[in-house]
Design brief:
By secondary structure, the chain is an alpha+beta fold. It folds into 2 domains: 132 residues, no CATH class; 165 residues, Alpha-Beta Complex (Phosphoenolpyruvate Carboxykinase, domain 3), CATH 3.90.228. The chain is 25% helix and 35% strand. The chain has 7 helices and 19 strands. The strands form 3 sheets. Strands 9, 10, 11, 12, 13, 14, 17, 18 and 19 form a 9-stranded mixed beta sheet that branches. Strands 3-1-2-8-7-6-5-4 form an 8-stranded mixed beta sheet, sandwiched between helices. Strand 13 and strand 14 form a beta hairpin.
Length: 306
């Protein structure tokens, strides 16, 4: 390979590591993660000591090696194969990964990333990789934003454009602590669910069609106990309002967003943790304009009552 090979690593919690190789040093913010360890052409045999070949960068940058392992997931866009302790992934023919999910380590190659729409890597490549990495470590990733208010986690789940990131931004400006913008991470502490901080950028924009600006948040806390869960149902024709719902109704809505590439055991673990989250939390439907000042005030009123 003639082009320089740039590498960054992102650490999720104390044990999970995601290392990315690409040929452009100016595009790491497109992955949505907060990276450390900047460098060029590192000693790959030391960095990739969990793998069985020594030419990982050249091989991965040109495409995935042929795998004879068991197909974990196969579709028109994503293929994941299990070969012993390693999992090999291919994503839209644009990026490739190999990792030991039992050890919590994965390496991703993404050449020519500057040619793709900015949100493509974060949504279509890194989301399934992160989901697999987390579930292998006993954690569940929800497509939701979250913050800590008065020491309790508030989780905001909804479809793209429902106002999750903007509402999160308003809560942070009101004194909340950042937990996650797009990937709320559930862990287990002494048999209870905890919402752990996920190291990703806060995405900010003024409209659904406008590209999002990525802002590095202050990562001041490691996590928080569950407090409240809001399912955002955006409808700009009505004023914001909240309606309390049962744990089972909230859990059913969250389970609709679980990754299709989860294996059966992963679905069972995720379903159990989501149900426990909803039992530990107060759950609400937040209707109206989810990213308005009125919606923010409704959320703060609920959190103040806990």
């Amino acid at each position: 390979m003639t082009a320089p090979l740039y590498v960054r690593s992102a650490y999720v919690g104390a044990a999970l590591e995601i290392t990315v190789y690409t040929d452009n040093e100016n595009v790491f913010d497109r992955f949505g993660l907060i990276f450390t360890d900047p460098g060029v052409n590192p000693d790959v045999t030391e960095k990739l000591d969990i793998f069985t070949v020594t030419k990982i960068p050249d091989e991965m940058m040109s495409g995935p090696a042929q795998s004879t392992g068991r197909a974990v997931h196969s579709s028109d866009f994503i293929e994941i194969y299990e070969d012993g302790d390693l999992r090999h992934g291919g994503y839209f023919g644009k990026a490739w990964s190999v990792g030991d999910y039992n050890q919590g380590r994965v390496v991703v190659s993404f050449p020519m990333i500057e040619h793709y729409q900015p949100d493509f890597p974060a949504i279509n490549v890194f989301r399934p990789i992160i989901e697999s990495l987390l579930i292998g470590a006993g954690r569940v990733s929800l497509h939701a934003s979250s913050a800590a208010i008065n020491g309790k986690a508030v989780i905001m789940s909804g479809f793209r454009g429902s106002g999750k990131s903007t509402l999160l931004d308003k809560l942070l400006l009101s004194g909340g602590d950042f937990l996650a913008d797009d990937r709320t991470m559930l862990g287990n502490k002494n048999g209870e669910i905890i919402v752990e901080t996920f190291p990703e950028h806060l995405r900010r924009s003024h409209s659904v069609l406008e590209p999002k600006t990525r802002i590095r948040p202050d990562l001041t806390i490691e996590g928080a106990d569950p407090g409240a869960l809001f399912l955002l149902m955006r409808d700009e024709s009505i004023p914001p309002s909240v309606r309390k719902i049962s744990p089972s109704e909230a859990a059913a809505q969250l389970m609709l967003g679980l990754p299709v590439h989860y294996e059966h055991a992963h679905f069972e673990l995720a379903a159990d943790m989501i149900m426990q989250l909803c039992i530990q939390s107060q759950s609400y439907i937040l209707s109206g304009w989810g990213d308005s000042e009125e919606s923010k005030n409704l959320v703060l009123e609920v959190m103040d009552s806990l």
